[in-house]
Structures are given as structure tokens and as C-alpha cells.
User: Fold FERM domain containing 4B from Rhinolophus ferrumequinum.
Amino acid sequence: MASVFTCGVEDLLFSGSRFVWNLTVSTLRRWYTERLRACHQVLRTWCGLRDVYQMTEGRHCQVHLLDDRRLELLVQPKLLSRELLDLVASHFNLKEKEYFGITFTDDTGQQNWLQLDHRVLDHDLPKKPGPTILYFAVRFYIESISFLKDKTTVELFFLNAKSCVHKGQIEVDSETVFKLAAFVLQEAKGDYTSCPKGASPFKHLT
Assistant:
């Protein structure tokens, strides 16, 4: 009788141990699954917010200068357009920067100027992948080049005019085109000379 009772107790203890074990395993599995799901959710959230985070840290921009250089920079969220213009102007040691500005082309193809008293990233910049393209250019023109005081300003006005004619942004008649081309050649190669050695660089133009 005692042995039967003992066996019954052992079976009960064994069954209880299996129950506790199964409950423990089930609890651990559920805890692991929940934590794994939480980790996946965190990863998805992080991946989704990565671009937003990068935008809050700044935006990669490429400023095209009039001398064909490219200025790569990271525009911070609080950077004013005026400060960006000062930064670009410093690459030319430009004193008369009031004639110049920075422009961009939006998603509709419309050209817009950065407003100097606004932050750069507050503008409706294009949302294309890659760095945002900005252009440094003449914004305000004058009646005569003689009003300009600094030779750097004169050179930048010349480069801006050459670029506008080349891109078709300024319409000129054929006679003016040849005259402008002559000025460009004079600036690049110097005054015309009739000697064979001096004329050789121009043979491919004929």
C-alpha cells in the first residue's frame, strides 16, 4: 500500500515538474518572440526615420560656381541663405557680393532664387536623390561695367554672361554672337596676331 502511495506521489511530482518545465519553456519562448518582434519594430522605425534624421542633421548640396568649380558642402538646418552666399563669395575673395545670388531649379523646372533672410532648407528644394544642385550667379545687373569697383566682380560678370549666352538664356543676334565670341577669344588667347605661330590655336575654329 505504501509503495503504491509512493509511486503515486512520484508520478504527481513528475507530472508537476513536466508542467512547470513546459510552462517555463512556453513563457521563455513567448518572451523571446515578443522581444524579437520589438527589436524588428525598432529596426524598421530606425530605417524609416534614417532619412528624416539625416535631413535634421543637414543636407548635402553642390554649388556650381561661375568658373566651373563645384563646391561640395553640408547645409545645416539653421544656415541662412545670406550665410551661404558669404561662404561661396569667400572662395573668390569677392567684395561686391550684393550683385550675386544663389539659385536652384525646383521639381517643376522653375528657377528660383534663395531668399537671403530665409534659411536655405526652408525653400522648396528639389526632392531628387543625391546632392541638391545650387548655382552661384549674377542676380542684379548694372547699366555699365564701369560701375564695378573690383576686378573679381568684373571677371564674374563676364563668366556669367558667357554662360548665359552658351546656355541660350540670353538671346542675341548673329552679329552680336560673333562679336562676343571675339571677346571671349581675346580674353582666353590674347590679342590677335597674324603670324603663323600666334594664329595656330585658332585654326580649328575655321
